[in-house]
Each structure stands twice: as structure tokens, then as C-alpha cells.
Design the sequence.
């Protein structure tokens, strides 16, 4: 079976994106004041303890001048079932977004102080008071890739029914503009510096092997994320490693209206891969990519009235 779609759309800014109160907090990483301590070198009027390698203030909040986002997308794919209970899916997607509503990252502002001079608010003595990172309409996004899936279910046997499925996404291209009509920057498979999408993984998938028999069910799950180019890639061209975890769970449905599940997340206690990211109020790993909790146990009960 073949399938295809084409659509256009828009997204109006949310109430918070428009009316969110402006508040001041700290930057997630440390920076040098580009005017008083460029490159870590003190300039006349500068103070090392105030202007160099510091967390500065940043203003967050809404923007009443936002326009709606606009988008268009195209998908084409197929579903193939060569034999009973075995199915393969492949879908291509191409998505474009214009006037994306987001915040310009603090790193982008500090890395290009000339272009973003209006984002620096200074005190009377010339020292940096705060930078502005409120919501705004940035440039566009162009992304394309493939969603793939494979599923199989066995016939019922004397020992139960077995199954397998895997669903993954491969990003062939991801580009964005930091400002309207700006330069297109390709970031597929790398750290982006964008507040709304910090990492664009080339490939990730979830795979499951399961067994069901009468009131019992078991599931073993693999979660895989392909490694990516780190934030500070000039640090020996650092690349964050692949990240794989396994979960297992068992469910019993023999009670009336009650379902009990117990399991283990991250069975092998896999540590997050090392990262030199510095824009998340911490260093060593990126919590947006990996879970630092390690092996954890859980029990869950679901009762239907």
C-alpha cells in the first residue's frame, strides 16, 4: 500500500509566548563581555571579576509582537506485508517552517555581538546588565528524513504469542535560520545551540521483544540514540558517543479491573556518554540526551472503574 500527503498550516503563538511576564535569570553557561573582556582580555573600564568568564543575566518572557508560524509538509511512504503478521513501513517526510517562534540562544548572542547588539542592555557605566532572550519570530526550518518500522507477531502457540517491533527515524537534513532571511545552517547529527531543539540526532530507534500468555505479558525494550557532534567540537573534534539502554517489564492481568506491572529501567546501569556541553547549568553530560539516574525499579498498578 502506498500513501502520501501534502499539507499547509500555521500555529498561533500561545498565551504564554505573547503575554508571559518578563523575568531575569542567569545564563546557563559562562561568557566574556564582548565589549569589556573580548576573548578574555580586559579592556579599559573592564573588571575581570565582573566581566570575564561570568554568568550574566538574561531576560526571558513573552512578546506581544509575534506573528503566527507557517508551515508546509510533504510525506510519501508505503506499507508492505510480505507474509501474514509481518509488516514493514517506510515514510519519507519533508517539512518547512517559516517565522518559527522561539528564543535566540544565549550562545548565538555572545558569539556575534555585532549582529545582536540590540540584545545587550548595559548599565550607565558600560557594564553588561542583561541580554534579551524573549520569544521572537526567528527564520525558517527545513528538515527531511525517513520514518521506518518493522513488526512481527507469531501465531498463538502452547507457550504463548511472541512479537517483535522496531520504529526508528533517520534525519537526512536539518537546517535553520537564526533570523528572517538569514543564512541556512545545517545541524543534522550535531549540537545546535538552539534553545528549543538543542540536539538533532541522525538516527534513533526503539525496539521491543514481547511475549503474551493468558494473563501474563513480558516486554524487553531497547532504546538507541546515535552519537552526535558535541557543543565545543573544536575540543579535539569531540563527538558524543552512541547511547543505548534496555528496559524490561512484566504485567499480570488476572485480577478484575486491575493490572499490575513491575520492571527495571536501564537494566545494565548505563552511564550517560560524556559531553562538554556548558549551557545547561552543569557539565559532564547532557540531560536532554541521556538519563543520569542509571538502573531504576518501578511498580505500577492500573485500576479501571
Sequence:
Amino acid at each position: 500500500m502506498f500513501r502520501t500527503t501534502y499539507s499547509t498550516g500555521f500555529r498561533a503563538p500561545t498565551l504564554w509566548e505573547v503575554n508571559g511576564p518578563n523575568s531575569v535569570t542567569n545564563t546557563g553557561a559562562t561568557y566574556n563581555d564582548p565589549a569589556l573582556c573580548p576573548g578574555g582580555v580586559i579592556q579599559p573600564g573592564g573588571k575581570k571579576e565582573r566581566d570575564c568568564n561570568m554568568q550574566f543575566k538574561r531576560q526571558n518572557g513573552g512578546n506581544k509582537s509575534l506573528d503566527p508560524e507557517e508551515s508546509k509538509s510533504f510525506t510519501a511512504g508505503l506499507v508492505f506485508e510480505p507474509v501474514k503478521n509481518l509488516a514493514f513501513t517506510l515514510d519519507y517526510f519533508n517539512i518547512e517552517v517559516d517565522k518559527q517562534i522561539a528564543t535566540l540562544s544565549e550562545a548565538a548572542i555572545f558569539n556575534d555581538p555585532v549582529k545582536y547588539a540590540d540584545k545587550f542592555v548595559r548599565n550607565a557605566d558600560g557594564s553588561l546588565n542583561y541580554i534579551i532572550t524573549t520569544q521572537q519570530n526567528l527564520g525558517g526550518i527545513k528538515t527531511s528524513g525517513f520514518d521506518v518500522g518493522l513488526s512481527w507477531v507469531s501465531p498463538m502457540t502452547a507457550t504463548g504469542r511472541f512479537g517483535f517491533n522496531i520504529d526508528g527515524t533517520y534525519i537526512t537534513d536539518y537546517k535553520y535560520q537564526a533570523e528572517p532571511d538569514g543564512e541556512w545552517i545545517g545541524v543534522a547529527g550535531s549540537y545546535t545551540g538552539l534553545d528549543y531543539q538543542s540536539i538533532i540526532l541522525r538516527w534513533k530507534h526503539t525496539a521491543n521483544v514481547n511475549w503474551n500468555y493468558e494473563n501474563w505479558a513480558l516486554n524487553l525494550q531497547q532504546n538507541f540514540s546515535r552519537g552526535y557532534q558535541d557543543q565545543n567540537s573544536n575540543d579535539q573534534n569531540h563527538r558524543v558517543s552512541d547511547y543505548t539502554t534496555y528496559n524490561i517489564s512484566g504485567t499480570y492481568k488476572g485480577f478484575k479491573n486491575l493490572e499490575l506491572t513491575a520492571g527495571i529501567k536501564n537494566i545494565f546501569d548505563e552511564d550517560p556518554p560524556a559531553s562538554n556541553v556548558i549551557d545547561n547549568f552543569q557539565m559532564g553530560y547532557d540531560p536532554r540526551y541521556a538519563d543520569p539516574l542509571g538502573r531504576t525499579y518501578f511498580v505500577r498498578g492500573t485500576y479501571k472503574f
Summary: The chain has a mean pLDDT of 93.
